[in-house]
Design a protein that fits this description.
The structure is a homodimer. Chain A is α+β, with helices and mostly antiparallel strands. The first copy, chain A, has helices at 12-27, 35-42, 46-58, 74-97, 105-112, 118-127, 174-182, 216-220, and strands at 62-63, 71-72, 153-154, 163-169, 190-196, 203-207, 210-214, 222-227. In chain A, helix 1 (12-27) packs across helix 4. The N and C termini of chain A lie far apart (49 Å). Residues 87, 91, 106, 109, 171 of chain A line the site of one manganese (II) ion (MN). Chain A binds a DNA duplex through residues 11, 13, 34-37, 44-52, 55, 66-68.
DNA sequence: TTGATTTGTTAGTCATAACTAACTTTTTTA
DNA sequence: TAAAAAAGTTAGTTATGACTAACAAATCAA
Protein backbone atom coordinates (compact mmCIF):
# COMPACT_ATOMS: atom_id res chain seq x y z
CA UNK A 1 0.00 0.00 0.00
CA UNK A 2 1.35 3.37 -0.99
CA UNK A 3 1.90 6.04 1.62
CA UNK A 4 -1.06 8.43 1.72
CA UNK A 5 -0.60 10.25 5.04
CA UNK A 6 -2.34 13.59 5.42
CA UNK A 7 0.86 15.59 5.09
CA UNK A 8 3.35 14.52 2.47
CA UNK A 9 6.86 15.71 3.16
CA UNK A 10 7.76 17.40 -0.09
CA UNK A 11 9.35 20.83 -0.05
CA UNK A 12 7.91 23.69 -2.07
CA UNK A 13 10.81 23.24 -4.51
CA UNK A 14 10.25 19.53 -4.98
CA UNK A 15 6.57 20.20 -5.62
CA UNK A 16 7.33 22.91 -8.16
CA UNK A 17 9.72 20.68 -10.09
CA UNK A 18 7.17 17.84 -10.23
CA UNK A 19 4.41 20.16 -11.37
CA UNK A 20 6.61 21.75 -14.01
CA UNK A 21 7.70 18.38 -15.37
CA UNK A 22 4.09 17.21 -15.49
CA UNK A 23 3.04 20.30 -17.39
CA UNK A 24 5.84 20.00 -19.91
CA UNK A 25 4.97 16.34 -20.47
CA UNK A 26 1.22 17.02 -20.68
CA UNK A 27 1.67 19.96 -23.03
CA UNK A 28 3.08 17.86 -25.80
CA UNK A 29 2.70 14.18 -25.07
CA UNK A 30 4.84 13.08 -27.97
CA UNK A 31 8.00 15.09 -27.38
CA UNK A 32 10.38 13.94 -24.65
CA UNK A 33 11.43 16.37 -21.91
CA UNK A 34 15.07 16.78 -20.97
CA UNK A 35 16.94 18.27 -18.05
CA UNK A 36 17.78 21.62 -19.66
CA UNK A 37 14.29 22.12 -20.97
CA UNK A 38 12.93 21.74 -17.46
CA UNK A 39 15.61 24.13 -16.20
CA UNK A 40 14.62 26.76 -18.74
CA UNK A 41 10.93 26.36 -17.91
CA UNK A 42 11.61 26.88 -14.22
CA UNK A 43 14.14 29.64 -14.87
CA UNK A 44 16.89 27.92 -12.90
CA UNK A 45 20.28 26.63 -14.03
CA UNK A 46 20.67 23.16 -15.59
CA UNK A 47 22.86 22.25 -12.64
CA UNK A 48 20.08 23.00 -10.17
CA UNK A 49 17.66 20.89 -12.14
CA UNK A 50 20.10 18.03 -12.43
CA UNK A 51 20.51 18.09 -8.66
CA UNK A 52 16.80 18.12 -7.93
CA UNK A 53 16.07 15.38 -10.44
CA UNK A 54 18.58 13.19 -8.62
CA UNK A 55 16.67 13.75 -5.41
CA UNK A 56 13.28 13.08 -7.02
CA UNK A 57 14.63 9.89 -8.59
CA UNK A 58 15.85 8.72 -5.18
CA UNK A 59 12.33 9.31 -3.86
CA UNK A 60 10.83 7.42 -6.81
CA UNK A 61 8.84 10.31 -8.25
CA UNK A 62 10.93 10.56 -11.41
CA UNK A 63 12.54 7.94 -13.62
CA UNK A 64 15.33 8.56 -16.09
CA UNK A 65 18.59 7.11 -17.31
CA UNK A 66 21.81 9.08 -17.21
CA UNK A 67 21.77 11.51 -20.12
CA UNK A 68 18.25 10.29 -20.84
CA UNK A 69 14.84 11.93 -20.90
CA UNK A 70 12.68 12.50 -17.84
CA UNK A 71 9.53 10.62 -16.87
CA UNK A 72 7.19 10.80 -13.88
CA UNK A 73 6.17 7.72 -11.91
CA UNK A 74 2.48 7.24 -11.06
CA UNK A 75 3.17 8.73 -7.63
CA UNK A 76 4.98 11.71 -9.19
CA UNK A 77 2.04 12.32 -11.51
CA UNK A 78 -0.42 12.08 -8.65
CA UNK A 79 1.42 14.75 -6.68
CA UNK A 80 1.54 17.02 -9.73
CA UNK A 81 -2.17 16.65 -10.41
CA UNK A 82 -2.98 17.42 -6.79
CA UNK A 83 -0.94 20.62 -7.09
CA UNK A 84 -2.74 21.61 -10.27
CA UNK A 85 -6.06 20.94 -8.56
CA UNK A 86 -5.10 23.14 -5.63
CA UNK A 87 -3.76 25.88 -7.89
CA UNK A 88 -6.91 26.04 -10.01
CA UNK A 89 -9.31 25.83 -7.07
CA UNK A 90 -7.55 28.74 -5.38
CA UNK A 91 -7.60 30.76 -8.60
CA UNK A 92 -11.32 30.13 -8.84
CA UNK A 93 -11.86 31.18 -5.23
CA UNK A 94 -9.87 34.39 -5.65
CA UNK A 95 -11.69 35.22 -8.85
CA UNK A 96 -15.25 34.35 -7.81
CA UNK A 97 -15.26 35.40 -4.16
CA UNK A 98 -12.43 37.85 -3.52
CA UNK A 99 -12.71 40.27 -6.45
CA UNK A 100 -9.40 39.29 -8.03
CA UNK A 101 -9.13 39.86 -11.78
CA UNK A 102 -7.97 36.99 -13.95
CA UNK A 103 -4.51 38.47 -14.32
CA UNK A 104 -4.06 38.70 -10.54
CA UNK A 105 -4.97 35.19 -9.45
CA UNK A 106 -2.02 33.15 -10.73
CA UNK A 107 0.76 34.61 -8.57
CA UNK A 108 -1.16 34.24 -5.32
CA UNK A 109 -2.35 30.72 -6.29
CA UNK A 110 1.30 29.85 -6.88
CA UNK A 111 1.81 30.39 -3.14
CA UNK A 112 -1.48 28.90 -1.96
CA UNK A 113 -0.99 25.64 -3.88
CA UNK A 114 1.75 24.67 -1.41
CA UNK A 115 -0.42 24.83 1.72
CA UNK A 116 -0.57 21.32 3.14
CA UNK A 117 -4.05 20.15 4.16
CA UNK A 118 -6.33 17.78 2.33
CA UNK A 119 -9.32 19.02 4.29
CA UNK A 120 -8.65 22.63 3.28
CA UNK A 121 -8.77 21.95 -0.42
CA UNK A 122 -11.66 19.51 -0.38
CA UNK A 123 -13.75 21.88 1.74
CA UNK A 124 -12.86 24.79 -0.53
CA UNK A 125 -14.03 22.66 -3.45
CA UNK A 126 -17.32 21.90 -1.68
CA UNK A 127 -17.76 25.53 -0.61
CA UNK A 128 -17.60 26.62 -4.26
CA UNK A 129 -19.90 23.74 -5.24
CA UNK A 130 -17.30 21.77 -7.18
CA UNK A 131 -16.39 24.16 -10.00
CA UNK A 132 -15.29 22.57 -13.28
CA UNK A 133 -13.06 25.26 -14.69
CA UNK A 134 -10.68 27.92 -13.39
CA UNK A 135 -10.88 31.59 -14.50
CA UNK A 136 -8.65 30.89 -17.50
CA UNK A 137 -10.81 28.08 -18.81
CA UNK A 138 -8.68 25.17 -17.57
CA UNK A 139 -10.37 22.06 -16.14
CA UNK A 140 -9.97 21.45 -12.41
CA UNK A 141 -8.95 17.87 -11.49
CA UNK A 142 -11.37 16.31 -9.00
CA UNK A 143 -10.62 14.91 -5.56
CA UNK A 144 -9.95 11.49 -7.05
CA UNK A 145 -7.10 12.99 -9.05
CA UNK A 146 -8.74 12.55 -12.43
CA UNK A 147 -7.02 14.91 -14.79
CA UNK A 148 -8.92 15.64 -17.97
CA UNK A 149 -7.57 17.80 -20.76
CA UNK A 150 -9.94 19.62 -23.08
CA UNK A 151 -8.90 19.02 -26.68
CA UNK A 152 -7.58 22.46 -27.49
CA UNK A 153 -5.39 24.00 -30.11
CA UNK A 154 -3.63 27.33 -30.27
CA UNK A 155 -5.16 30.18 -32.24
CA UNK A 156 -1.88 30.34 -34.15
CA UNK A 157 -2.42 26.86 -35.61
CA UNK A 158 -5.59 27.82 -37.52
CA UNK A 159 -5.87 28.88 -41.12
CA UNK A 160 -7.48 31.77 -42.92
CA UNK A 161 -11.25 31.52 -42.89
CA UNK A 162 -11.40 29.26 -39.83
CA UNK A 163 -13.88 30.09 -37.10
CA UNK A 164 -13.26 29.10 -33.48
CA UNK A 165 -14.26 29.70 -29.90
CA UNK A 166 -11.85 30.87 -27.18
CA UNK A 167 -11.86 28.12 -24.54
CA UNK A 168 -8.77 28.86 -22.44
CA UNK A 169 -5.72 31.08 -22.13
CA UNK A 170 -2.19 30.63 -20.84
CA UNK A 171 -2.25 32.26 -17.43
CA UNK A 172 1.48 32.74 -16.93
CA UNK A 173 1.79 36.39 -17.99
CA UNK A 174 -0.06 39.26 -16.33
CA UNK A 175 0.59 41.56 -19.30
CA UNK A 176 -0.79 39.06 -21.75
CA UNK A 177 -4.00 38.51 -19.76
CA UNK A 178 -4.56 42.25 -19.37
CA UNK A 179 -4.13 42.69 -23.09
CA UNK A 180 -6.63 39.92 -23.84
CA UNK A 181 -9.23 41.73 -21.73
CA UNK A 182 -8.32 45.12 -23.14
CA UNK A 183 -9.04 44.23 -26.72
CA UNK A 184 -12.37 42.75 -25.63
CA UNK A 185 -11.69 39.04 -25.85
CA UNK A 186 -13.09 36.72 -23.19
CA UNK A 187 -13.72 33.01 -22.68
CA UNK A 188 -16.30 31.77 -25.22
CA UNK A 189 -15.66 34.62 -27.66
CA UNK A 190 -16.24 33.47 -31.23
CA UNK A 191 -13.24 34.36 -33.38
CA UNK A 192 -12.84 34.36 -37.17
CA UNK A 193 -9.41 34.26 -38.81
CA UNK A 194 -9.52 36.93 -41.51
CA UNK A 195 -5.93 36.85 -42.67
CA UNK A 196 -2.54 35.45 -41.78
CA UNK A 197 0.33 37.68 -42.88
CA UNK A 198 3.18 35.62 -44.28
CA UNK A 199 5.82 38.21 -43.39
CA UNK A 200 5.59 37.95 -39.58
CA UNK A 201 2.76 35.42 -39.08
CA UNK A 202 0.60 38.12 -37.52
CA UNK A 203 -3.10 37.33 -37.64
CA UNK A 204 -6.07 39.52 -38.41
CA UNK A 205 -9.05 38.33 -36.40
CA UNK A 206 -12.66 39.34 -36.02
CA UNK A 207 -14.82 38.89 -32.91
CA UNK A 208 -17.98 40.61 -31.63
CA UNK A 209 -17.81 43.02 -34.56
CA UNK A 210 -14.27 44.07 -33.61
CA UNK A 211 -11.31 43.57 -35.92
CA UNK A 212 -7.81 43.28 -34.43
CA UNK A 213 -4.37 42.22 -35.55
CA UNK A 214 -2.48 40.02 -33.12
CA UNK A 215 1.07 38.63 -33.18
CA UNK A 216 1.97 34.96 -33.48
CA UNK A 217 3.28 35.09 -29.90
CA UNK A 218 -0.13 36.28 -28.75
CA UNK A 219 -1.94 33.60 -30.74
CA UNK A 220 0.34 30.91 -29.28
CA UNK A 221 -1.12 31.64 -25.85
CA UNK A 222 -4.76 31.54 -26.86
CA UNK A 223 -6.45 28.13 -26.88
CA UNK A 224 -9.47 27.56 -29.06
CA UNK A 225 -11.88 24.96 -30.28
CA UNK A 226 -12.68 25.02 -33.99
CA UNK A 227 -16.33 25.53 -34.88
CA UNK A 228 -18.08 24.61 -38.14
CA UNK B 1 8.86 57.48 4.15
CA UNK B 2 8.99 53.86 5.22
CA UNK B 3 9.03 51.09 2.68
CA UNK B 4 5.50 49.76 2.17
CA UNK B 5 5.76 47.82 -1.07
CA UNK B 6 3.14 45.18 -1.68
CA UNK B 7 5.50 42.30 -1.02
CA UNK B 8 7.83 42.62 1.92
CA UNK B 9 10.87 40.41 1.68
CA UNK B 10 10.79 38.59 4.97
CA UNK B 11 11.21 34.83 5.06
CA UNK B 12 8.75 32.58 6.87
CA UNK B 13 11.32 32.18 9.65
CA UNK B 14 11.89 35.90 10.10
CA UNK B 15 8.14 36.40 10.28
CA UNK B 16 7.70 33.65 12.86
CA UNK B 17 10.40 35.09 15.11
CA UNK B 18 8.86 38.59 14.97
CA UNK B 19 5.40 37.26 15.72
CA UNK B 20 6.66 35.12 18.59
CA UNK B 21 8.57 38.02 20.13
CA UNK B 22 5.51 40.25 19.82
CA UNK B 23 3.34 37.67 21.52
CA UNK B 24 5.77 37.16 24.38
CA UNK B 25 6.00 40.92 24.88
CA UNK B 26 2.24 41.43 24.61
CA UNK B 27 1.46 38.54 26.95
CA UNK B 28 3.08 40.20 29.92
CA UNK B 29 3.95 43.79 29.19
CA UNK B 30 5.96 44.29 32.36
CA UNK B 31 8.41 41.38 32.16
CA UNK B 32 11.33 41.66 29.74
CA UNK B 33 11.92 38.97 27.11
CA UNK B 34 15.35 37.43 26.61
CA UNK B 35 17.01 35.34 23.94
CA UNK B 36 16.54 31.95 25.59
CA UNK B 37 12.94 32.58 26.45
CA UNK B 38 12.22 33.28 22.80
CA UNK B 39 14.15 30.14 21.85
CA UNK B 40 12.08 28.01 24.20
CA UNK B 41 8.82 29.51 22.94
CA UNK B 42 9.77 28.71 19.34
CA UNK B 43 11.22 25.30 20.25
CA UNK B 44 14.58 26.06 18.66
CA UNK B 45 18.04 26.28 20.21
CA UNK B 46 19.29 29.49 21.85
CA UNK B 47 22.00 29.60 19.19
CA UNK B 48 19.44 29.69 16.40
CA UNK B 49 17.58 32.50 18.09
CA UNK B 50 20.75 34.46 18.70
CA UNK B 51 21.56 34.17 15.04
CA UNK B 52 18.14 35.29 13.86
CA UNK B 53 18.00 38.18 16.31
CA UNK B 54 21.27 39.44 14.82
CA UNK B 55 19.67 39.42 11.40
CA UNK B 56 16.49 41.14 12.59
CA UNK B 57 18.57 43.79 14.35
CA UNK B 58 20.50 44.45 11.15
CA UNK B 59 17.15 44.94 9.39
CA UNK B 60 15.96 47.27 12.16
CA UNK B 61 13.01 45.18 13.31
CA UNK B 62 14.53 44.37 16.70
CA UNK B 63 16.57 46.44 19.13
CA UNK B 64 18.72 45.04 21.94
CA UNK B 65 22.10 45.43 23.58
CA UNK B 66 24.57 42.59 23.84
CA UNK B 67 23.37 40.36 26.70
CA UNK B 68 20.34 42.64 26.99
CA UNK B 69 16.60 42.12 26.60
CA UNK B 70 14.77 42.16 23.27
CA UNK B 71 12.51 44.89 21.94
CA UNK B 72 10.61 45.36 18.70
CA UNK B 73 10.85 48.54 16.64
CA UNK B 74 7.63 50.13 15.38
CA UNK B 75 8.22 48.41 12.03
CA UNK B 76 8.81 45.07 13.76
CA UNK B 77 5.57 45.44 15.69
CA UNK B 78 3.68 46.37 12.57
CA UNK B 79 4.83 43.20 10.80
CA UNK B 80 3.87 41.07 13.80
CA UNK B 81 0.40 42.60 14.03
CA UNK B 82 -0.14 42.03 10.31
CA UNK B 83 0.75 38.35 10.81
CA UNK B 84 -1.65 38.03 13.74
CA UNK B 85 -4.35 39.67 11.64
CA UNK B 86 -3.77 37.21 8.81
CA UNK B 87 -3.64 34.24 11.16
CA UNK B 88 -6.92 35.10 12.88
CA UNK B 89 -8.76 35.99 9.68
CA UNK B 90 -7.77 32.65 8.15
CA UNK B 91 -8.84 30.80 11.29
CA UNK B 92 -12.19 32.56 11.09
CA UNK B 93 -12.58 31.66 7.43
CA UNK B 94 -11.75 28.00 8.02
CA UNK B 95 -14.13 27.83 10.96
CA UNK B 96 -17.07 29.75 9.51
CA UNK B 97 -16.97 28.67 5.86
CA UNK B 98 -14.97 25.46 5.53
CA UNK B 99 -16.35 23.30 8.37
CA UNK B 100 -13.11 23.24 10.34
CA UNK B 101 -13.49 22.67 14.07
CA UNK B 102 -11.78 25.10 16.43
CA UNK B 103 -9.02 22.63 17.19
CA UNK B 104 -8.21 22.19 13.48
CA UNK B 105 -7.83 25.80 12.36
CA UNK B 106 -4.60 26.84 14.04
CA UNK B 107 -2.15 24.56 12.21
CA UNK B 108 -3.45 25.45 8.76
CA UNK B 109 -3.60 29.17 9.64
CA UNK B 110 0.04 28.89 10.69
CA UNK B 111 0.79 28.14 7.04
CA UNK B 112 -1.70 30.56 5.49
CA UNK B 113 -0.46 33.54 7.51
CA UNK B 114 2.73 33.57 5.42
CA UNK B 115 1.02 34.02 2.06
CA UNK B 116 2.14 37.39 0.70
CA UNK B 117 -0.66 39.54 -0.74
CA UNK B 118 -2.29 42.54 0.85
CA UNK B 119 -5.25 42.24 -1.47
CA UNK B 120 -5.87 38.64 -0.46
CA UNK B 121 -6.22 39.39 3.21
CA UNK B 122 -8.20 42.60 2.87
CA UNK B 123 -10.63 40.95 0.47
CA UNK B 124 -10.97 37.96 2.77
CA UNK B 125 -11.78 40.39 5.56
CA UNK B 126 -14.42 42.10 3.43
CA UNK B 127 -15.84 38.76 2.24
CA UNK B 128 -16.47 37.75 5.86
CA UNK B 129 -17.86 41.22 6.61
CA UNK B 130 -15.02 42.32 8.88
CA UNK B 131 -15.26 39.82 11.74
CA UNK B 132 -14.14 41.06 15.15
CA UNK B 133 -13.04 37.82 16.79
CA UNK B 134 -11.47 34.54 15.75
CA UNK B 135 -12.92 31.13 16.72
CA UNK B 136 -10.99 31.14 20.01
CA UNK B 137 -12.32 34.52 21.10
CA UNK B 138 -9.25 36.60 20.18
CA UNK B 139 -9.71 40.06 18.62
CA UNK B 140 -8.68 40.45 14.98
CA UNK B 141 -6.50 43.52 14.26
CA UNK B 142 -8.01 45.71 11.53
CA UNK B 143 -6.44 46.75 8.22
CA UNK B 144 -4.93 49.84 9.87
CA UNK B 145 -2.96 47.57 12.17
CA UNK B 146 -4.77 48.53 15.33
CA UNK B 147 -4.16 45.80 17.86
CA UNK B 148 -6.57 45.71 20.77
CA UNK B 149 -6.32 43.28 23.65
CA UNK B 150 -9.39 42.29 25.63
CA UNK B 151 -8.68 42.59 29.35
CA UNK B 152 -8.58 38.91 30.25
CA UNK B 153 -7.36 36.79 33.10
CA UNK B 154 -6.78 33.07 33.38
CA UNK B 155 -9.33 30.85 35.05
CA UNK B 156 -6.54 29.71 37.37
CA UNK B 157 -6.16 33.19 38.84
CA UNK B 158 -9.68 33.29 40.32
CA UNK B 159 -10.76 32.38 43.83
CA UNK B 160 -13.41 30.15 45.32
CA UNK B 161 -16.88 31.59 44.85
CA UNK B 162 -15.90 33.75 41.85
CA UNK B 163 -18.15 33.69 38.79
CA UNK B 164 -16.79 34.43 35.32
CA UNK B 165 -17.46 34.13 31.62
CA UNK B 166 -15.20 32.26 29.19
CA UNK B 167 -14.02 34.86 26.65
CA UNK B 168 -11.06 33.16 24.93
CA UNK B 169 -8.83 30.10 24.94
CA UNK B 170 -5.21 29.43 24.13
CA UNK B 171 -5.34 27.84 20.67
CA UNK B 172 -1.90 26.22 20.63
CA UNK B 173 -2.88 22.67 21.61
CA UNK B 174 -5.31 20.50 19.67
CA UNK B 175 -5.79 18.14 22.63
CA UNK B 176 -6.62 20.99 24.98
CA UNK B 177 -9.22 22.47 22.62
CA UNK B 178 -10.85 19.10 22.04
CA UNK B 179 -11.08 18.57 25.77
CA UNK B 180 -12.66 22.00 26.29
CA UNK B 181 -15.41 21.08 23.82
CA UNK B 182 -15.76 17.57 25.20
CA UNK B 183 -16.66 18.66 28.70
CA UNK B 184 -19.18 21.10 27.24
CA UNK B 185 -17.42 24.43 27.66
CA UNK B 186 -17.67 27.03 24.90
CA UNK B 187 -17.06 30.75 24.42
CA UNK B 188 -19.43 32.76 26.65
CA UNK B 189 -20.02 29.88 29.08
CA UNK B 190 -20.67 31.19 32.59
CA UNK B 191 -18.40 29.42 35.05
CA UNK B 192 -18.50 29.33 38.85
CA UNK B 193 -15.45 28.37 40.93
CA UNK B 194 -16.75 25.90 43.52
CA UNK B 195 -13.48 24.84 45.12
CA UNK B 196 -9.72 25.10 44.68
CA UNK B 197 -7.88 22.10 46.09
CA UNK B 198 -4.70 23.18 47.89
CA UNK B 199 -2.91 19.88 47.23
CA UNK B 200 -2.57 20.17 43.45
CA UNK B 201 -4.38 23.44 42.68
CA UNK B 202 -7.06 21.54 40.76
CA UNK B 203 -10.31 23.46 40.45
CA UNK B 204 -13.89 22.30 40.79
CA UNK B 205 -16.07 24.35 38.45
CA UNK B 206 -19.75 24.53 37.60
CA UNK B 207 -21.22 25.60 34.26
CA UNK B 208 -24.57 24.95 32.56
CA UNK B 209 -25.56 22.61 35.39
CA UNK B 210 -22.39 20.52 34.85
CA UNK B 211 -19.75 20.10 37.54
CA UNK B 212 -16.17 19.27 36.50
CA UNK B 213 -12.76 19.21 38.05
CA UNK B 214 -9.97 20.68 35.95
CA UNK B 215 -6.22 20.91 36.51
CA UNK B 216 -4.27 24.11 37.04
CA UNK B 217 -2.62 23.55 33.65
CA UNK B 218 -6.05 23.46 32.04
CA UNK B 219 -7.17 26.59 33.88
CA UNK B 220 -4.00 28.43 32.79
CA UNK B 221 -5.16 28.16 29.17
CA UNK B 222 -8.69 29.40 29.73
CA UNK B 223 -9.23 33.16 29.64
CA UNK B 224 -12.17 34.67 31.44
CA UNK B 225 -13.82 37.91 32.45
CA UNK B 226 -15.09 38.11 36.03
CA UNK B 227 -18.81 38.79 36.38
CA UNK B 228 -20.71 40.24 39.37
C1' DT C 1 31.07 38.66 48.08
C1' DT C 2 32.12 34.79 45.87
C1' DG C 3 30.74 30.58 43.80
C1' DA C 4 26.93 28.39 41.32
C1' DT C 5 23.42 28.80 38.14
C1' DT C 6 21.23 30.90 34.42
C1' DT C 7 21.48 33.40 30.28
C1' DG C 8 23.60 34.70 26.15
C1' DT C 9 27.31 34.28 22.51
C1' DT C 10 30.52 32.14 19.35
C1' DA C 11 32.40 28.58 16.48
C1' DG C 12 31.79 24.89 13.70
C1' DT C 13 28.61 21.42 11.31
C1' DC C 14 24.69 19.95 8.45
C1' DA C 15 20.78 20.12 4.99
C1' DT C 16 18.46 22.49 1.32
C1' DA C 17 18.55 24.80 -2.82
C1' DA C 18 20.38 28.11 -5.50
C1' DC C 19 24.61 29.59 -8.45
C1' DT C 20 29.03 29.40 -11.97
C1' DA C 21 32.65 27.04 -14.30
C1' DA C 22 34.45 23.14 -16.20
C1' DC C 23 33.82 18.85 -18.03
C1' DT C 24 31.53 14.74 -20.55
C1' DT C 25 28.23 12.66 -23.45
C1' DT C 26 25.04 12.86 -27.14
C1' DT C 27 23.30 14.79 -31.24
C1' DT C 28 23.61 17.51 -35.28
C1' DT C 29 25.65 19.13 -39.33
C1' DA C 30 28.96 19.92 -42.75
C1' DT D 1 32.43 10.52 -40.18
C1' DA D 2 34.69 14.03 -37.77
C1' DA D 3 34.15 18.56 -35.87
C1' DA D 4 30.83 21.62 -33.74
C1' DA D 5 26.91 22.41 -31.06
C1' DA D 6 23.71 21.10 -27.68
C1' DA D 7 22.52 18.66 -23.69
C1' DG D 8 23.65 16.82 -19.40
C1' DT D 9 26.79 16.16 -15.34
C1' DT D 10 30.08 17.23 -11.70
C1' DA D 11 32.61 20.08 -8.56
C1' DG D 12 32.89 23.79 -5.82
C1' DT D 13 30.65 28.14 -3.76
C1' DT D 14 27.01 30.79 -1.47
C1' DA D 15 22.91 31.84 1.56
C1' DT D 16 19.49 30.43 4.93
C1' DG D 17 18.36 28.36 9.04
C1' DA D 18 18.70 24.60 11.80
C1' DC D 19 21.91 22.01 15.24
C1' DT D 20 25.70 20.94 19.27
C1' DA D 21 29.57 22.07 22.05
C1' DA D 22 32.26 25.26 24.28
C1' DC D 23 32.70 29.55 26.32
C1' DA D 24 31.56 34.27 28.48
C1' DA D 25 28.66 37.40 31.00
C1' DA D 26 25.11 38.37 34.22
C1' DT D 27 22.40 37.17 38.06
C1' DC D 28 21.21 34.68 42.18
C1' DA D 29 22.05 32.85 46.70
C1' DA D 30 24.54 31.27 50.50
MN1 LIG E 1 -2.38 29.68 -12.75
MN1 LIG F 1 4.36 26.74 -6.91
MN1 LIG G 1 -4.12 30.25 16.09
MN1 LIG H 1 3.85 30.93 11.15
Amino acid sequence: MTNKSNLNNLTKSEEDYLKALFQLLAEDHTVKVGNNQLAEYLKVSPASTNNMIKKLKAKHYVVSEKYGKLELTAEGQSIAVRLIRKHRLWETFLYNYLNFSWDEVHDVAEQLEHIKSYKLIDELDRFMDFPEKDPHGELIPNAKGEYKVIPKITLSSLEEGDVCRLIAVNDGSVNFLRFVSEIGLALSSKIKILEIREFDKSIRIQFDGTIETVTKKFADNVFVKKVI
